[in-house]
Amino acid sequence: MESAVVPAISIYAEYLSNIKQVSVSITLPSLATTTTSVALDEDQGNLTIRHEGDQITSILPAHVSNNVPLEIPDTVLSWSLRLPVAVERLIARNREHEEDVPWVAERLNQETEIACCACRTNVLKGPINRWSNLPSDNWAELMDFWHCHKPENPDGDHDQGSGSKAYAAGNKPQARRGVGYVNASSFVLHQDDCCISPTIDASPTETVTCAGCGSQLGHIDQDFEGIRLNKWDLTVRTLPSVPWESYGPGIFATCIIMDNAEYLGRKKLVVYSGDVKTSSTALLVWIFSPKVKYSSSSLLTGPRTAVKVMYKLIDNPWDVINNDLGSMLAETALATPLMQAVLEMLRQSQSTLPEDLRTFQDWNVGLLDRFNG
Asked: How far apart are CA 191 and CA 218, in angstroms?
């Protein structure tokens, strides 16, 4: 989440999709006067505030309707507006296909190139003939809930435990030459398809590094008998004629959190890095809105998409998971760079949100940026 110095006049706007309105919070450095003004541009997509010789313009997260009254209460420091969106523009925007995860299998092809984000050294030895999306890491455990008639073992033996089930976790796909597997935060490839070639019988925690600069790119995945590459350490282009794309660890951290929440059907999660039993930096996260469009005059960029959450810092995730409420929580482990990115996004969003929207009861409120492809 990129931020600049917070200006003397601040505007925070959020698209409320359930009621088709844009909520705008405005804060001034001094009380509003008769010369203070609020105006929309002709396109109804930018809001400008003028106050005591200062002026600031912010792009709204959605275009609003014409002829909206923009009244300013007398002698206030802050106030809010509710602006109805332009329905015809909203319909056109909703027709556009949006993806929540970068580089899903459907967007990749035989011309896809993958390189180290730090030095752009190529990671692939040659083309990958087929890309396939991986299910959530929790898919096998959820089959008992999803299926009325579960897929059975082909030999008809129903009594040999979960390892013999056609849907058991042990039956996950394994790395194959010419096939690339994709999930929310990583690629899984056969070692023969990679320019980095560690031995598969090494420690399961052994990392793999870039052949060009030595940057860590992932690790050996014993379960898949292949190499798992971190998306946040990579840059990708799907055709030679298109630009390279890369995204920070925060985007992928949000992908993992939402993937776990959706697959497990939970709104509350314990998010941590390292060993859950010894981790001293963790979060209790409550997903308030899975997808909000917002803009702020404190951001260097235009409107963004985020998950709006309520959260608490906790130093005992293991105890929280094992208390009476543990069955209501999804457990989410993040790599250290992703956990650090989540903490930083929440810290920055506290300055992005208006002061009166930063807390709810005993919870902090924050925004986790998410991909909007």
From this structure: 12
